[in-house]
Amino acid sequence: MRPRTIRTGDVRVCHLHINPAYAQQDLNSVLPVARLDELAALGEIGASAPSHYSHMGYTLRPERFLRESVTGIVRHLREERDDVVVVVPV
């Protein structure tokens, strides 16, 4: 399975600080991959990126997350030549 083809039911959301019911009913409420594909099919956007990223909060060591994970994500976004980032706060 490629990250871009992920759909509701492919992912389990487990977090002590949020109610996972919305994500379990429709993954697009937290990771709108299918909605982006629909917008691309309608010609509203050029294309959905080949990769998508998700991060659940309650980060005890944000400096490490920023230094390691965010740096890696930004590198991949640049490699894929993505133009826009959609942030969905949950």
Spans of at least 5 consecutive residues whose pLDDT stays below 50 are none
Biggest β-sheet strands, sense, barrel: none
Please report the total strand number as a whole number. 0
Average pLDDT, rounded to a whole number, is: 85
The first-to-last residue Cα distance is: 24 Å
List the keywords.
mainly alpha, 3 helices
Explained architecture:
This protein is mostly helical and 90 residues long. The protein has one domain (3-79). Helices cover 36% and strands 0% of the residues. The protein has 3 helices and no strands. The protein has helices at 21-25, 33-41, 62-79. The model has no long low-confidence stretch (mean pLDDT 85).
Can you summarize this structure?
This protein has about 90 residues and is mainly α. The chain has helices at about 20-25, 35-40, 60-80. The protein has one domain.
